[in-house]
Amino acid sequence: MATTIRQELDEEFLSTISKGQEIALDALKPQVEAVHYVIPTMPAVRVPLTGLLPTAHEDAARRDDFAEHLLASQRQSGFWAPLPVAIPGS
């Protein structure tokens, strides 16, 4: 008995989720069609020297290295040292 109720609830939940997804897709269809209508008319843009820019992987590695160096220098300078806490009324 409990398993059939559980199965019915699961099926109802999945049916509700499916209906919600259908509604969301129906709402997005006009926007997607508008974008497809506009994109082919736009000319391709070529920016000079873009080949000299770092790749996303190189940029992420560079940011990670910078963060490591920044944190190390803050630890050395005592920037993150615990501050004394004043208790009101003491």
Could you explain the architecture of this structure?
It is a single chain. The chain has 90 residues and is mostly helical. The chain has one domain. It is 66% helix and 0% strand. The chain contains 2 helices and no strands. The longest helix has 37 residues.
Key terms for this structure?
90 residues, mainly alpha, 2 helices, 66% helix
Query: Could you say how many structural domains there are in total?
Result: 1
Apparent shape:
flat
As an assembly, this protein is single chain
Tell me how many strands there are.
0
Can you describe this structure in just a few lines?
This protein is mainly α and 90 residues long. The protein contains two helices and no strands. The protein has one domain.
Sequence-ordered SSE layout with sheet pairings:
Layout: H1 2-38, H2 56-77
